C-alpha cells in the first residue's frame, strides 16, 4: 500500500475473520496492522503521514472489521481512498528457516575447543538447537573430531 507520492512506507494487512462456534456462540475477530518499513526516514513529513494514517485507521469500526462480506481491499479503499491506495499482489506466507547443518558446523568451528567441550552433554554429544525453528543438530565424537580437523587446516 502506498500513501501519497513520496511516502511508500506503510504496509497494511487485514487479518481475516476468524470465526468458530464455542458453546453455541459465534465468535469472530478481525484486525488491522500498519507497519512502518525499516528503511524509511523518520522526518516531519513521514511523521505527519504516520499520524494521518493512524487517524484514518482509527475510523475503522468493529462492524467493518468483523464483516465477512467486506473484502480486505474494499476496507482499505474505504479507509484510505484519499491516500491513493495501491494493493500489491498477495504473497503466500510459509514458515522457513535458513539453518543448515553446514551453518551449524561453521558456527561450531568458530568456537575454541574448550567451549565446544563445555557444550558436550553427558552422553558426549553436542546438540545445537536452532532458536528459530527448534531443529536439532547432533554431533558425535567422530563428527566433532572432523570439525576440529577442518578448523586446524
Ligand atoms: Zn532453524
Number of domains: 2
Report strand %: 15-25%
Spatial arrangement of strands, main beta sheet: 1-4
| Unreliable sequence segments | 1-22
Structural class: alpha+beta
Order of helices and strands: EEEEHHHHHEEH
Q: In this structure, how is the largest beta sheet organized?
A: 2 strands, antiparallel
Provide the gyration radius in Å.
25 Å
Bound molecules: zinc ion
N→C terminal distance: 52 Å
What is the number of helical segments per DSSP (H or I, 4+ residues)? 6
Percentage of helical residues? 25-40%
Principal-axis shape equals elongated
Mean pLDDT: 80
Please provide the count of β strands. Answer: 6
Report what the structure shows.
With 153 residues, the chain is α+β, with helices and mostly antiparallel strands. It folds into two domains: 10-80, no CATH class; 101-152, HSP33 redox switch-like (CBS domain Like, Alpha-Beta Complex), CATH 3.90.1280.10. Helices cover 36% and strands 17% of the residues. It has six helices and six strands; from the N terminus they run E-E-E-E-H-H-H-H-H-E-E-H. It has helices at 44-57, 62-66, 72-80, 101-109, 113-118, 141-152, and strands at 10-15, 20-22, 25-27, 31-36, 126-129, 136-139. The strands form three sheets. It has a two-stranded antiparallel ribbon with strand order 1-4. It has a two-stranded antiparallel ribbon with strand order 2-3. It has a two-stranded antiparallel sheet with strand order 5-6. Bound molecules: zinc ion. The site of zinc ion (ZN) has 6 residues, from loops.
Amino acid at each position: 500500500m502506498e500513501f501519497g507520492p513520496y511516502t511508500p512506507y506503510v504496509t497494511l494487512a487485514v487479518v481475516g475473520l476468524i470465526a468458530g462456534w464455542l458453546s453455541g456462540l459465534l465468535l469472530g475477530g478481525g484486525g488491522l496492522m500498519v507497519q512502518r518499513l525499516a528503511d524509511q526516514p523518520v522526518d516531519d513529513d513521514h511523521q505527519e503521514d504516520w499520524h494521518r494514517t493512524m487517524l484514518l485507521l482509527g475510523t475503522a469500526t468493529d462492524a467493518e472489521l468483523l464483516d465477512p462480506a467486506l473484502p480486505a481491499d474494499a476496507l482499505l479503499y474505504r479507509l484510505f481512498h484519499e491516500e491513493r491506495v495501491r494493493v500489491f499482489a498477495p504473497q503466500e506466507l510459509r514458515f522457513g528457516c535458513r539453518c543448515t547443518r553446514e551453518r551449524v558446523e561453521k558456527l561450531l568451528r568458530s568456537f575454541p575447543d574448550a567451549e565446544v567441550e563445555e557444550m558436550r552433554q553427558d552422553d558426549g554429544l553436542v546438540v545445537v538447537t536452532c532458536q528459530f525453528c527448534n531443529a536439532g543438530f547432533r554431533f558425535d565424537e567422530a563428527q566433532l573430531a572432523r570439525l576440529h580437523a577442518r578448523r586446524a587446516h
